[in-house]
Amino acid sequence: MSAQSEGEYAEALQNYYEAMRLETDPYDRSYILYNIGLVHTSNGEHTKALEYYFQALERNPSLPQALNNTALICHYVRLS
């Protein structure tokens, strides 16, 4: 997460993909997927971000951050 907070998105994605490879718990994986979605959102890759938010919600349907960001992207895209 430190790479992400410093704007090092490529490094952050590498770290998250490695975490996905190692993590087996669906609940924990949902947060990793959510963070990958955040990186794609920051890069303006809304379609890709939505894919990861939806994957996160499949594993953790009560993840409010993913629900909120999905709604924000849909609202943004509709206004564009």
TrEMBL record:
Keywords: Chloroplast, Plastid, TPR repeat. Gene3D superfamilies: Tetratricopeptide repeat domain (1.25.40.10). SMART domains: TPR. The keyword Chloroplast applies. Pfam families: TPR_1. It comes from the Eukaryota. TPR repeats lie at residues 30-63. This is Photosystem I assembly protein Ycf3. The lineage of its organism: Eukaryota, Viridiplantae, Streptophyta, Embryophyta, Tracheophyta.
